[in-house]
Amino acid sequence: MAALSTSEVELPASSRFAGQKLEISITEDDIHRRVKELADAISHDFRGKQPIMIGVLNGSFIFMADLVRALDIDFEVDFIKLSSYGKDTATSGTVRLLKDISADITGRDVIVVEDIVDTGLTLKFLRARMTEAGPTSVTFVSLLLKEEVANLDFPLDYVGFNIPNRFVVGYGLDADQKMRGLGSLYAFKEN
Ligand code: 5GP
Fold this sequence. Notes:
alpha/beta, six-stranded mixed sheet, four-stranded antiparallel sheet, 20% helix, globular, binds guanosine-5'-monophosphate
């Protein structure tokens, strides 16, 4: 595993991105500060309610863990697993449901926790899946938003950071299933 705290990281030799370099995009400290702000806003807005926090696997697992631990309201958790990227760094254009939620969300306040919104395709799929179950409310939080490319017909409720249209890894996000453990967020270095 590459060093976790340097400003530049090289991808492992075993990776299909071997030799490419990553440069820091958002530091661990800035992420933690922003996650706390998001949690404070959600705790304020959902005071007296008991939302079900639904993490979108795999990428959101670290964000989800940090976010829920910073909440000071009662909540439940569940997960949904989707796939749109496969092994590439560009969306396949098709969203596949790999694992559905297990909780009954009818009549509940649902908060969907995404790592990143790129084209917005996954988000549209998630909204359709949640709405069909008749929840009281559906709220979307995403740590990252690629505002330039996202094509959304509804606004995200909470966004951590707007980022440029570059592939990022770390803090739960992968490059071909690797690099999820990096504490900060990194972007592929342009040559
Ligand atoms: P969308 O459907 O909005 O195009 O893409 C959403 C999903 O694609 C995210 O949940 C994430 O899994 C993946 N994704 C989009 N952009 C990136 C990126 O820059 N880095 C990584 N690692 N995954 C991304």
